[in-house]
């Protein structure tokens, strides 16, 4: 992960930001808001992950296109018929609705990737350790579970290749399935053994016997306060636009999308682009300082 300006903010600022953008991303289905949200989230996601994130998106794109194309076959409540597939109507409204749903899925994938890169386990611990210590510990363990599983899976695969028990690309499906089951069995054994070791270690260290103390390495600064107030104002602007019906959108059985509100869309995009603006400001400041040396 690249350490950007927003990642160095107080965990409360990052947590509030991701809560707002994910809630708005799920609740708002207006095509203009969805498209603008994807552009803003994509800019910050690529800023954090670089070429690795772009490769992941390219692998995910076929699944998103498939969701958009298959939605009219499951939801046939549109009025504009494009064609029929095996005597099943394929309406335009359902295709548009499926495209919007795919956009929302992509938006959530991008924000979840950004959240996983910015909200590290130590930030969750420092943010919730004193309020809800059990939930804080659970969140930390869940967040580190998937990366550990993937890393251990690569280690097991490499070890099997070293002893000549790997399955090549030209192997039969039954052999690939058997190899996958062996890998899953090894991962399950490793996870169960690790949970027992972790439980014994926590018990021997006296976890839960007394009130825990915590060390807070993050300090709430004036910049963090300004960012939280700004996010509050922008989020309130989006909520006002939602209550006015400016973000409403219905696609089936008839196309009914509310007229675009420049105020609501502007507040939404400014909120989403805050991390990118912070990074650009820091990069510009650094460039000016370096050019003056």
Structural class, please? mainly alpha
Structure summary, number of beta strands: 4
Instruction: Give the overall pLDDT as a whole number.
Output: 83
Gyration radius (Cα, Å) is: 24 Å
Helix content bin: over 70%
The end-to-end span amounts to 29 Å
Instruction: Classify the oligomer.
Output: single chain
Residue windows where pLDDT falls under 50 for at least 5 positions: none
| Tally of alpha and pi helices | 10
Strand content: under 5%
Shape estimate = globular
Largest sheet: 2 strands, antiparallel
Strand order of the largest sheet: 1-2
| Element-level helix/strand string | HHHEEHHHHHEEHH
What do these coordinates show?
- The two termini are 29 Å apart.
- The mean pLDDT is 83.
- Helix content is 71%, strand content 4%.
- With 293 residues, it is mainly α.
- β1 (81-85) and β2 (88-91) form a beta hairpin.
- It has helices at 11-27, 31-49, 51-74, 92-118, 121-128, 133-162, 173-204, 222-243, 262-272, 274-291, and strands at residues 81-85, 88-91, 249-250, 256-257.
């Amino acid at each position: 992960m690249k350490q950007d300006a927003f990642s160095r903010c107080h965990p409360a600022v990052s947590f509030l930001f991701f809560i707002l953008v994910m809630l708005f991303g799920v609740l708002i289905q207006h095509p203009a808001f969805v498209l603008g949200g994807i552009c803003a989230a994509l800019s910050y996601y690529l800023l954090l992950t670089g070429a690795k994130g772009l490769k992941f998106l390219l692998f995910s794109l076929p699944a998103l296109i498939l969701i958009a194309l298959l939605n009219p076959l499951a939801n046939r409540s549109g009025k504009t018929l494009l064609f029929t597939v095996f005597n099943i109507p394929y309406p335009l409204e359902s295709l548009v609705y499926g495209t919007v749903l795919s956009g929302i899925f992509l938006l959530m994938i991008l924000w979840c990737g950004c959240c996983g890169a910015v909200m590290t386990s130590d930030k969750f611990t420092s943010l919730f350790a004193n309020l809800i210590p059990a939930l804080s510990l659970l969140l930390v363990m869940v967040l580190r579970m998937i990366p550990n599983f993937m890393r251990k899976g690569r280690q097991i695969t490499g070890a099997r290749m070293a002893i000549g028990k790997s399955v090549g690309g030209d192997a039969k499906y039954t052999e690939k399935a058997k190899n996958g089951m062996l890998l899953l069995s090894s991962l399950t054994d490793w996870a169960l053994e690790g949970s027992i070791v972790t439980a014994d270690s926590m018990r021997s260290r006296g976890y839960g016997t007394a009130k825990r103390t915590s060390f807070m390495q993050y300090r709430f600064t004036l910049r963090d306060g300004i960012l939280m107030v700004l996010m509050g104002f922008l989020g309130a602007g989006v909520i006002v636009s939602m209550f006015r019906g400016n973000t409403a959108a219905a696609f089936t059985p008839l196309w009914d999308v509310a007229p675009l509100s420049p105020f609501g869309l502007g507040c939404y995009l400014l909120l989403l682009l805050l991390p990118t603006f912070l990074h650009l400001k820091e990069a510009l400041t650094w460039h000016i300082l370096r050019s003056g040396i």
